[in-house]
Amino acid sequence: MERSKVTVSEKEIARQREYAAKMRGIIGMQGLAAHIRTYGCQQNEADSERLAGMAEEMGYRITEHAEDADLILVNTCAVREHAELKALSITGQFKHLKAKRPHLLIGICGCMVTQEHRKEDIKHKYPYVDFLFGTGMLYKFPEILYNAYHSGTRSFYIDDTEGNIAEGIPVRRESSFKAWVSIMYGCNNFCTYCVVPYVRGRERSRAKEDILAEIKELADAGYREITLLGQNVNSYGKDLGTGYEFPDLLEDICKIQGEFLVRFMTSHPKDATKRLIDVIADNPKMAKQFHLPLQSGNNRVLEIMNRHYTREHYLELVDYMKERIPEIAITTDIIVGFPTETEEEFEDTLDMLRRVQYDNIYSFIYSKRAGTPAAKMEGQIPADVQGARFSRLLEVQNAISHARNEVYEGKIVRVLVEGRSKTDDTKLTGRTERNRLVHFEGDDSLIGQFADILVTGAQTHSMTGELKK
Prior knowledge:
By secondary structure, the chain is an alpha/beta fold. 37% of the residues lie in helices and 20% in strands.
């Protein structure tokens, strides 16, 4: 893919700033508010931070309450049907707000609306939605909103690009100490169950200079944790043709001055290398945690998933990680009930859980995605069988996760304090370098800082502790 086809020109970005200035002139002192609702992955969250940045540049203030908003934007996900239905459900609930406030503008963006059948659904079943646009047109949000504000007609933008990279978009970050940084977009892998290549386009990497400049700015501002994002970060740089790849980028990031941890997601096992693992092992700024999606522990299932690795290759990577970083935390993704998966093949997945000893897994029951090869496969697994296997998977992993946490009882761990616990607001929540949650009593002044915690108890998905002073 030619870079000229994917890089948005400075002239075009300047044109969008002109639209933002026009909107700011219109909004003026009206004090209008925008509400952005996000579904899906961390990439969507990063996209929403840019949408919020553009909304602020146009004169909106950001509100957490939809009922107070003059603009509502729903940023959607298409990876699983549940996420799509949830986004459509919340959009349906906004109908009554539109009835009360006719001037309210409602837009839908993101991966879901890049699919033709969903776009048609919204066009015909959600007449109160004013506009929609896909992931490749995010940078055009000022122009899209300007047109919606003036035209009085509904707009449905067709994203016919191969994907793009737009630098210089304003960002309104949700956190003052944790940041998402997208290093690449899109995917070339075409796993048979996944819509990402269809809704986010082909892989395209940002220039290293732009990434390093963004991270230096974050480090200078005191950010403590930076997570690099991409559908497959391990293939970063391959489209640039310079020989500069993901391990090189990590080494350069670790040279930036500042006290911060670096994480990344998501990795594809077929592109993970021993050199990447060495970079993690050798650099103190790299979090000693690796998210390595397995999806299935059976080679035949991996083949029909189009994953391009075997369980043997996967275990070689894991063994090398544990050799170089003995206390590394390994997490993964698992799909349960993929078409034609037999009981014996599912047992291979359970065997991998026991052999790898994952700290945590993100597990999902297989969900048909329109337009993917797996949706048309024969041998779809009945829902009751999928559910039973899912329960067994969680039973095995929960026991492993609990045991992995128990090892830390009586030890002191360093955490980045994230805020008040969602389940007990009398306690703070911190996350260790190895991505374990720890709940403890403490003052709000600790939020955004590193703290040492004595672990006093272990649960399946978190730990409890005491602040060491």
